[in-house]
Amino acid sequence: MINCFSRRKWESGLRYLKKATEKGHVEAVYTYGIILICLDGELRKQGLRVLSSLHLPKPNQGNSRMIASCRSKTEKFLRCMWVHVALTGPKGICCNCDCDIEEKPNHSTPSECQAWDASNDVSHCCDYCFWDREANLFCSLLRKYLIN
User: What Pfam families does UniProt report for this protein, alphabetically (predicted)?
Assistant: First the structure.
């Protein structure tokens, strides 16, 4: 992540994340997959395949512990970095589903990243919409630590 967002060395950063993903590092799988989703096209599809390797139960069946852990570790890592590069969230894919995503903020004041800490309670959500939501939350977090 340092190479991608702090040193602006995308190729080597993605190569290192891919290597860590191949070795089964859960947070690397999460981060690498989310980044690929944000890059659109064939990389988006690759990102969804990478994230599917996490073998999470359906969102409404309690994957919040693993996701919360990945979020927490990602935020701790970003907090210690000089973030110079942010990502644009993914362009939503039309999946023709009936997703009902309602974020439950846990803060009393609105902020761009309040959903990052929110519960993953989603009454009905397909994988595409779930990971798009995660990618948008990740991008919001990057912007939070972005150095202008």
Answer: TPR_27
